[in-house]
Structures are given as structure tokens and as C-alpha cells.
Design goal:
It is built from nine helices and no strands. The protein is an all-alpha fold. The mean pLDDT is 87.
Length: 166
């Protein structure tokens, strides 16, 4: 066998080419679903960016499916790794924000439903907090729950806690 034939890589099977194309289309779908502000943070070629904006105008399922194939075709000529990296970072930050939100919610709910022990646990973990302000907000939220009214006690406590829990 001549040397030049040995150095050439094996051609991809039809199944593998289809799989690769489907992955590019899935990446294109993720890009289409992003808000414009996040799209601007991703290094995209102009023709791909225009195709993504054009996809936002499409309504029918079939036209979107065909357009995703077109986006996949455009993406064959670019390296998808930088795009995937930025998307993973965005997703990570989203998960961080969600986890922070849930942590604040849990503390708010425990403080409203809890006793003085839970308040002391919170004060141990966050000693810099204004204790008087915190107690006032907890009492207001508890009063709202007891009277089944919404005067902003829970949301006020949430905002206060969000500023403290970093």
C-alpha cells in the first residue's frame, strides 16, 4: 500500500455524518432559543447570526425544521467548540443564580415559619446583618401569612435576605 493512502483518515460513515449534522442542528436550536443580548456575547460569523435572526421570524414547524438544517450546513464550516464553551458558561451562571435564589427562598421560608433557634442559626452564618431590621421584616411577613394578606412582607424579607446572602 502506498504511503499516501495510509496517512489519509478513514472517511466518516453515513451514520456518523448524520449524527454530526444533527449535533450541529441541536447547537443551532440552542442558539435560536437564546435572547438577543446573550447571542451578542457569542463569537458567531455574520452569516450564521443572520440565519439565527431569520429563524426568529419563522412560525411553522416545517419551516423551522428546514431552517435548522440550513443552520447546521452553515455550521459545518466553523468550529463549534468556542460556541459550546460560551453556552456552557452561560448555563453554569444560570444554575448559580437559580441556586442562590433557592437558598434565599429557603432561608425566608424557614425564618417566617421558624422559631428563635432558626433566627440564631441565620445570625451565626451572617453576623453582619442588621438584627432589628431582620426581626421587623420577619414579623411583618408572619403577620401577612397569619392574616392571609399580601402587604409585601414576604417580598420585603426576600429582598433583604438576597442583599445579605452572597
Amino acid at each position: 500500500m502506498p504511503e499516501s493512502e495510509k496517512s489519509q483518515p478513514d472517511p466518516l460513515s453515513k451514520t456518523q455524518r448524520k449524527k454530526n449534522m444533527q449535533e450541529l442542528q441541536n447547537l443551532g436550536k440552542k442558539l435560536i432559543d437564546l435572547p438577543e443580548a446573550q447571542l451578542e456575547k457569542i463569537p458567531l460569523p455574520e452569516n450564521l447570526l443572520q440565519a439565527i435572526y431569520a429563524a426568529h421570524q419563522l412560525k411553522s414547524h416545517e419551516s423551522i425544521r428546514r431552517h435548522l438544517q440550513y443552520i447546521g450546513k452553515i455550521m459545518r464550516d466553523i468550529d463549534p467548540e468556542p460556541i459550546e464553551t460560551v453556552l456552557k458558561k452561560m448555563q453554569f451562571h444560570h444554575h448559580e443564580r437559580t441556586a442562590h435564589f433557592h437558598k434565599v427562598e429557603q432561608w425566608r421560608d424557614k425564618l417566617i415559619a421558624g422559631n428563635d433557634d432558626i433566627l440564631q442559626d441565620f445570625l451565626k452564618e451572617y453576623p453582619e446583618v442588621d438584627r432589628q431590621q431582620l426581626r421587623l421584616l420577619i414579623r411583618k411577613a408572619q403577620k401577612d401569612q397569619k392574616n392571609q394578606k399580601n402587604t409585601g412582607g414576604e417580598s420585603g424579607l426576600f429582598r433583604f435576605l438576597r442583599g445579605i446572602i452572597g
